[in-house]
Amino acid sequence: MEDLKFTIEEKEIAELLGRQNYSSKESAIFELVKNCYDAASNICNIYIDKNCIKIVDDGSGMNSEDIRSSWMHVGKSSKGYKDSDSDRVLAGSKGVGRFALARLGDRIQVSSKKENEKAVIWKTDWITNSLREAIVDFNKGTVIELNNLRDHWKRKDVDKLIDFLSRSYKGSEMKINIDFEGGSDQVISVFNDVEIGKNYTNQILLSYDSENMKLTVTINSDEFNPEVQKIIGSISQTHYEDEFNMVNELNLNTEEFEHYQEYLKELGEFTAELYFGMEKVPLEMSEKFKYKYNNLTTKDTKIILYRNAFSISSLDGTKDWLDIASRARKSPAAATHQTGSWRVRLNQIYGFVQIDKITNANLKDLGNRQGLEEDDYYQLFKDIISFGISRFEKHRQSIIRKIDESTTNIKHKKNERKNINDFLKKPSTVTQMTEKEISSLAQEIKDIQREAKEQSKAREESEQQHKYDVRILNVLATQGLRASAIAHELHNKRNSLESGYRDIVNALEEYGFWEELKSEKYTRVTYKNVPKILDGLEEINRKLIAFIDVILNKIEKEKFSTKIDSIESALNRVIDTWKKEYDWLNFEINIKNQMPEKYKISKDVLEVIFDNLILNSIQHNEMKDLLIIKMEVEKVGDMLEFKYFDNGKGLDEKYISDPKRILEVHETSRSDGHGLGMWIVSNTLRMYGGEVIDINSEKGFNIYFSIKG
């Protein structure tokens, strides 16, 4: 058998691995900078003029054997994890980075020298190559000269390169300098001089512990004036820290997702440092929310992914690889929204995520080096970071909500504007006012203008909140209408559904087949067991009939207008619909001081609240033989106070420390859940002047809430 080897055309390889593999001239130079770093160089000087680019380093250099065995060997890399002498984690590993030269120029000369060895010069035009010994004027290092450049370099191109490298290189071991037209610029990391109060107001630190599958989220904030602390009470305005179990938070704690738990461990530990800031805030908003800073200068980058000292191509802060904008579009609620989830906007957050070449080896480069493979590891990686960002969003929104509530509740006294009231009653009095009174009048007019702007802003926010709620409810309503259309069609065939099973059995008995079909001979094979199949169909028919009754009952017009006159009767109507299909439910009602009167709420309101609570109890306790649900009601003034309890498993572990988190939109502990049920409960209560008072998991699930009755 003959051994064969590929024959490779150098010019074609240069085209493929050089010109096509590097999408821009900046990325090609970046690849050569990484080579300087891997050579343990202390400096990387890049000289650019119209006809030539020269890249100089003082690294370890190469000899003739290195050129022959490594440099000229395509796909071979002698680089491991770390350089033992410099202790640097090496950036290269594929053995193709040298082809970045082909992206930049047609004629290349590489002069290189190892310490105490002879220097060599390698030349190529990508058709022929030559190597010779030479005398050079440096002790060790490498000088790359590129001629017949493929690009015209102007000042704006050099500035673009400096910006690119400032985002792509975060190390401090090697200095990068760029010389162009007699001027010299040092490349400094974009994150080198970020300052709180100048470039950001909130620092978000994420630290993932893969061994324990836990994420620690730390927030350091200086966004608000000190007086805010009195408004927000127990919430700290300057610091937040908590630890989260990612198995629970990503809903991977079921058998179906067991393999993902291994992925969480194999993903490896990593960290992130993110910055939040709003560049320009309108003065009235700044005053209302008591922002400490305005006119921030945020960094012109997005979130960058670094593997050790260098960014990963296409994840270098130019693209929204974490889908920040998409998250904001899906949840457009303002931070003041009382039930919707605020999401940070793309222009408000930047920073970096730090991974390691070995620790995070499962985050693999694409073959074309333009990013990472978007496999399960990558998706989990993104999900963990997104979850960390969501904790910041929740923390900040809790502060904004309280500030908004406090400013909304401030009432202006009538006598506060005495000057303007006097002026409006008799405009001519302005000529008799003292200078102090005129100044006071002017201030009152400014206050009115400011309040008008605030009210306009409040109306705008209210409209946005309404649109956000309506979007979700419209989806649910549309699904409900589709279900009701099907229910109407099935209702016309109700007789067949109710009697179909009995009609078939009667016919089989009449023809003398039934007893024979029930015999062991014909019931041995499950899928041929006619009586068992018919029993299953009868069960399905019963559920379909119940479905029809529930759907058609819920959309009766009178439910939306009829006020209830008995809380107990209204609750019993809700309970009856559930007991028909769930015989393992046991309900107890305790009405403490019901008075015979017309209540302000209609039937549909109570049904929405308790249907969602009962459904929540059922879905979380499907394996329980007997689920006891207790409802207690007490009238306190013009409010109805409810206590709802079930003896199930209670809150999921991730909600124990923050129970009211279950009220947030799309918050769920079930992998197939939509996270809308408890949000609808909370939203409904707020619409009718109530609120959720407390939630706990003592001996089951407990929720206390009020509503205007």
Automatic annotation (TrEMBL):
Catalytic activities: ATP + protein L-histidine = ADP + protein N-phospho-L-histidine
Domain Histidine kinase, residue spans: 485-709
Documented EC number(s): 2.7.13.3
Molecular-function annotations in GO: ATP binding; phosphorelay response regulator activity; protein histidine kinase activity; protein kinase activator activity
Coiled-coil intervals, chain numbering: 431-465
Record keywords: ATP-binding, Coiled coil, Kinase, Nucleotide-binding, Transferase, Two-component regulatory system
Localization, UniProt: Membrane
UniProt cross-references to Pfam families, sorted A to Z: HATPase_c, HATPase_c_3
InterPro entries in the cross-refs: BphY/WalK/GraS-like, HATPase_C_sf, HATPase_dom, His_kinase_dom
Name of the protein in its database record: histidine kinase
